[in-house]
Structures are given as structure tokens and as C-alpha cells.
Amino acid sequence: MTGGSTRPELRPYPHGSQSIVFDGQLNVWLHDQRIGTGPRYIIPIAIRVRGQLDVAALRRADVVTRHEILRAVYRVRGGWPVQEVLDPPSVAEALTTVDCAEADVWELVTAAVPAPASRRD
Known about the structure:
The chain is of the alpha+beta class. 28% of the residues lie in helices and 12% in strands. The chain contains five helices and three strands. The longest helix has 12 residues, at 23-34. The chain is flat, with a radius of gyration of 18 Å. The protein starts with 17 loop residues before the first strand and ends in a 10-residue tail after the last helix.
């Protein structure tokens, strides 16, 4: 990084397309296998912005590319979970902004949470 004006180069962690899960991830997976959680660990949020939102700055931040955990899915291989990190989507796919009335926020946010998927891939 030089002069504070550019970001460090993104370098993927060299773990291959699949890797073991960490203890906390394993605990969540085991809990889901036993009880089923559905989308319980998807935490929808809405952020109130006062003034003009700088969408271009959000797109430049490219958070989904920088943080692999936001692209991680868990598959079952040999009876145990493995973490698979998906390729980053285009920034246009990763970031959605919606202008809405405050009264409509909760409905829009909860509609964005996916329905529970099958626990077995």
C-alpha cells in the first residue's frame, strides 16, 4: 500500500477449492444436523443512511471479494462438512441498494432471507 490511496492487492488464501471447517463452524453444522436451523444464522440487517449514499465507494470496497467467509458454503463429503469458497460474484450482483419508506424496511429485509435449504447436499 502506498500513499494511503490504494488498497493492498487481494491474494487468495491457498486452501484449494475445499477445506476443513473450524470448530465453531463444525458446532453450527452439528447443531443443524441434529435439530435443524434453517436460515437462523443468516442475520438480515438494514442500515439507515442520512444524506446521499456513495454507492460507488461501496462498490470499490468490494467487501464480498475481500472476505471469503461471505462466499463460503458448506457441503457434506464422507459424512463430514467441508467449506467451499465460491468465486466472487460481480460487484453488481453482490451489492443491492433499495430506496424505500422506513415502514417497508423490515418486509424487504426479511424477504431477502432465503428459505431453508435441504440439510443434505
